[in-house]
## 1
Amino acid sequence: MERRTDSPYPKLDRPVLAVVGLLLIASTILFAWSDRRHDWRWYQAEFRKMVAEKYGAEKAKTLPAGTQQIWIKDLGNADRCITCHQGILWKGFEKADHPFRTHPPEPLKAHPVEKYGCTSCHGGQGFSIDLETAHGPVPHWEEPLLGQRLGEDYSLVDDKKALLQMNCNVCHRYDRETKGADFINHAKRLVNAKGCRACHVINGRGGTIGPDLTWEGDKAAEQFDMTRLSGQRTAFAWHVAHLKEPKALAPDTVMPNFNFGTKDAQSLAMLVMSWRHAPVPVEFRPGVARTDPQTADEIAEEQRMKTGPGAWFVKTGCFVCHNISSLGVKSPAQIGPDLSNAVEDVQSRFGRTLDDFLQSPTGTMSVVLSRQIVLTPEEKLVAIQKVREAYAEYQRQRAQAAKAAPVAARAR
Amino acid sequence: MKLLANLRSEKPSAPGVHPKPFWSLRPRSDREAGDAVVSNFLLHWFPAKTYKPSLDWTYSFWLGTASAALFFLLTLSGLPLLLLYIPSVERAYGSVKDIEYVVTFGKWIRAVHRISAHLMVAVVFLHLVRVFLTGAYKNGSGRGQKREWNWVIGVVMLLLTLFLSFTGYLLPWDQLAYWAVTVGTNIASSIPLAGPEIRELLLGGRAIDQSTLLRFYVLHCIFLPAAVGVLFAYHMWRVRKDGGLARADRQALLAEAKETGAVPTKTYTLLGVARGTAPTIRTASLEAPDLTVNAVNDLVRRIAIVVLGTIAIVGMLAVFVPSPLEEPANALVTPNPAKAPWYFLWLQEIVTITTVKIGKFTINGAFLGGVILPGILVTLLTIWPWLDRSAASGAGLWFAGDRKKQNAVFLGICLFILVLTVVGTFMRGPYWHFYWPWQAWPEIPSRI
């Protein structure tokens, strides 16, 4: 056999390899630990205890475990806030500390959590499940939690939690008045009172001396000249300072000083910061007319019919299918026969009297009167009365026409 | 049932057909066993014997092995990311946030991938520096060596590594990614004549958008790793065929031809030699037994130390070094300063320095700093083995005497690149103004 050479290596290399092995074990323990150490585990356990204390162990068992999220596809939001804030929909924790506290129920009535999530109102980073990164401020996440702490940083007047209203106005921007958004409402009144539109385009309308403010909230902080700004260096702080004393930040500006108070300036800053392109689907926005527009003629015609002699037929909904020509009611659809001569028509079609037919209708009318236009016995009497009135008018008009007809024949 | 019976039957149904469903570890004769040994790829991944000096820590610093280990780690950590990341403009950023915040071990996997990528750029570059300084691209004593071509392959792999890293840079679709790619592709568009076309080819359009993301994604996940993998295999094969590390050549030259005891070198069956049952022809060994050790265990053990050590270090770094993710990409807002990836910052620095304003005229440095200079450097690097006229005895020797001048120039260029990289990375603030490390940058404003 071949001669084997003595190797000098194992003596040193084996211990080195062993150390590397230990390092690998350490590295494995480290990364396993780093993934386990999230605080939400503790918060969930704590809330479970609180629920068990208050409502019993059975109730506590219904609490979900692990990371939780509200995924709102239309908004592209995945809000994991409820991983720790498990108490928001539970009654009885109104006085508990965050994150266990019950959410005030009033705003949730119009904005159910499962449809709006959390961050669309509160801001913050819904992706995150850790205290610091979720609430901010963190680098590179430009939407910090619009809560009390930030409001205190800006020394908001009256209401330290008011910054949230900026997000109200992302959807409510075309409202005159939004319930609960006092700062925004105040700012909107100021915009009209001070005539901001004299110089600025706002929502597509206004003068061109100043910059268009329609999407002012989308501007990045880098787009503001902050060289003369003292204190916080943020777009919001810039707006507040600039509204109070425009020339202090932009010496060449022609914007007048309106002598705004601190609350005025803060409200207006919140308003302009809320003017952002937000991809909010139409069903999330209030005040959007969800109907096909009518022409002025159509509106006038409808108004005339509503106030004319045939108003009852319009109000009750008969006119959806039937003309009542004698009373000047014109149906948009004209599916059914004219009701002007229903008294004769019913007799000839069904061989029954009008009264009898309306009391126990057959065919289409039985469906309509049982599902869409449900009338009480008293209302049915009114209906018979109204149809008779229309017939009377029909007969009167026919008689008049007959009188006029020979004249027309002679003329020919 | 018949199929199962067939699978079970020991007898081959036809000549050359393997009778068992799985690979058999039980050869029926010495010849079969010998064939299995000879045709086994893994047993021939390493040489049977290794020159002791080639194993020294301080000769090669095992940088090539470390690069391979990092490439292995990148492939491995890339696989789960492949399933978690969504290559769409709308959802890429969100999917990276998900990986970072809620996917089990996601943050660690992403950090491993990112740190390995940065380290690989650095280690591959250092490997190239080592090979240059030791003249390891030179052919030594062996006949038919083609070390210069392996050097060329190495240069190509360095470029592929840079491009791999750069394509990965875009994928999170954040500001860092978007603007690094903007800077990079704008430099490409300064190439004369075909510049805008090259940019359009890279971007898959005229703006950085979905098609760019898809292009970079496919390059990053399929074509570039495949190219690196194939070239790596060939690189390793050439190292073997060129007689191992260049240092082995040198030792072979220096070693006096010593007569050794007769060893069996020619035989008819492999296992027959091992058992002493086959006729063998005994001659003196050509290898110097005093200078070699068996590859198994000494070489394998050291490779295990380097590979596993790299994995352990990266694994621990990944726990403590967070991976940045900036704001979502926004074409309307340029971050200030907009920086290329760190390994391109020396080029960006040159671009800035050579952009000269004379009165109203601006001479754009993008062409010089972004195209001409790196072009010249890469070309020189590639053809250097043919320009280097130093003696063959310098192969595998740190700072060989007659290579002093070229080593000095090479080190000078490396130092130049290093200094510019450090300046670009740490000392350039907003508007590309110069700041010393102890000078604070102006505070970067935020929205709220």
## 2
Amino acid sequence: MPWEVIIFYFIAATAIAGAAGMVIAQNPVHSAVFLVICFIQIAAVFVMLGAEFLGIIQIIVYTGAILVLLLFVLMLVDPEDLPEFHVGRPVQRAVGVILGLILLLEVATAIATRTITGRQGNATLENVELVGGNTQALGRVLYTDHLLAFEVVSLILTVGVLGAIVLALPERLGVRSYKRKDTISLAHPRGTDIALPAGEGAQVQTGLSSTAVAKPSGVGRRLIMSSDPDEQPVTGGGRQ
Amino acid sequence: MNDQPMWLTFLFAFLIMNVLLIGMAYMTYFERKVLAGMQDRMGPTRTGPKGLLQPIADGVKLLGKEDLIPRFADKWVFFFAPLIVFVTAIVGVAVIPFGGTIEVFGRDLNLYITDLNVGALFLLAFSSIGVYGVILGAWASSNRYSLLGGLRAAAQVVSYEIILGLSLVGVFLLAGSLSLRDIMIAQQTNLEIGPLTVKNWFILSQPLAFILFMIAAVAETNRAPFDLPEAETELVSGFHTEYSAFRFSFYFLGEYIAMIVISLFASTLFLGGTSGPGSENHWYLGVLYLLLKAIVFLFFYVWLRATLPRFRYDQLMGIAWKVLLPLVLLNIVVTAAIRLASDGLLF
């Protein structure tokens, strides 16, 4: 079927372009977008191979959940805080290129000689059709032959979730949130958000000039830690 | 399923897409009229008889507006973010079955675009990609209000997607399939409640899942009372603050089409899809029933918007993780136990 081949080449080319773009792009958010493209195209390859379930799960889990959270973080990172790449660190660059080439060579050899074939299962097209489709076939295998592995994976994921909760907890369990020792707030204590004009003759300033003074640039606002949100912090605006 | 030529499927898909676009336009009219009625106003009356041409006028006006791009915007991302929302919303309709196979001009025509083995998950997957349009658009605008809206959208959709997906597991357990067509066919069997014999719509056997699904669906489509990403009063309409003209209209289209598709989805999953009196013999009655059921859900959306104030952000998250998630897990466990017991496998 020629049109299937054409569609496959289109998908494959887009997937490779997405992967390449992910590495090349300078902006981390652009990288994430390219990775999304790559993932969706790989899901499309899964669907073309008759594994709709895998394809859709690939989209839901990787594209829909994990990458969204990744993007979430990337959007909050100031690009200037990121380590500059392609600058300095010649050793790392050289080692990276060498390791990459070795990996590429390994994969190419494996594909060329077809040494990585794995154990042949009984999942032929006919057998899959017999149980009613690949979703059902996968479900059967997962919940019978590989039940133990499945349960272990669930346990590991639960441990991961609990770990994240413990790390994010600001205080010991049982301490109510309003008694928090420290709170994060922007360094502008109440009422001092608008800076008063200072110096002699400042009071007579009206109209445009006063609004110009009213908003000093955001430089003075630092992220500070204070033990009470209403407390006047010592740093930042409190000194004015 | 595969006996239909490709071009016929494409033709049908094209038809459905255009019907959906017109449906979206008149959804705005419907919403304005219903809202107006609830608030004792008239709603649109001027353009055309009873204001019926108002959506067309709005569309023309939106396309004629100036297309503004903020100076510090990330132009490429800013350009395609609205398209993501629009496309992912409209693709979902591909798995909605409007009926079985009918004969038109001597050809068999399937009244569904595709009967995917994992149809329900397909819809969920595309609604989860849709959030990229929101957060990327918000980020690319380089506007703080937009970014806040985008972050809210990301957190909200990721949380409520879990509820949405898990609330369907009960239905999948009962139907034994993820295909929307199989789920619809599974609801054609009769169910006897005392003297009554009714169709086995899953709203009867899965009432808790239905309520949870509706809550999660409203949150997933960013509609009131879960419209925090575009909270006008705090965020100046959030993620699309900087969008104007036809780029804004894509967000607008995406939101309303997502509502329509989710309503069709809910009707198929819980209200028997095309089932109704006489629908076995006349396919057009089936389509009519499906649309009527979807309109009930759309009315519900508007009703919510007119009635409920917006949630606070911590309430939104608290409800998802502390109330809805335990309930939805309980529903799965109970449904699975009942299913096993009815097969005689539990004890």
